[in-house]
Amino acid sequence: MIKARRAFDHVGMAVPDLDQAVEFFVDALGFDVVITAGPYDDFGYVWPGDSGPERGTLRQANLVLGTSFNLELLEYTNRTAEMPNKVARPADPGGWHLCLHVDDIHAASAELVERSDTQSISEIIREEGDPMDGLLWTYLRTDWGLVLELIQWNPGLPYERNTALRMALPQWAPA
What we know:
Distance between the termini: 29 Å
Radius of gyration: 18 Å
Organism: Mycolicibacterium hodleri
CATH superfamily of the largest domain: 2,3-Dihydroxybiphenyl 1,2-Dioxygenase, domain 1
Helix content: 10-25%
GO molecular function: metal ion binding; methylmalonyl-CoA epimerase activity
Shape: globular
Keywords: Metal-binding
CATH architecture of the largest domain: Roll
Domain VOC: 7-153
CATH class of the largest domain: Alpha Beta
Number of helices: 2
Protein name: VOC domain-containing protein
Oligomer: single chain
Order of helices and strands: EHEEEEHEEEE
């Protein structure tokens, strides 16, 4: 394990259209835009096996949700490397999703599904039995490829009987 002090800083996400993604995170989810930057002429890193950074155009926006979550949105265009032919599903290698803790999953899910750019891809599911009895979750997907999970739970889940460690809660959640 690294010895330096550490804390979560941000999640970075490649998006097909920066303006569309920023609009979604601000309008639908209440994020604030902190920084916009670019365009840059290359992507700033050297992928293993390449001789230099991939040439292309990079624009970025850094957003924040309250005081708890930093999100970096990255739009890569004019790429020289071949693009994948599909968005990875959460179960695919390299696939992922973004999860937001909400205090009313039914209302939050309904609000998002009312948008023309978001669809539900699962019912709201209640976990039954150990270790997460009572936790509620659902998946949604934007038309530009973001898989979004909404989750609702309170302290006191069964896993807490087996460890002193606790999942991090939002500042507004009951202790």
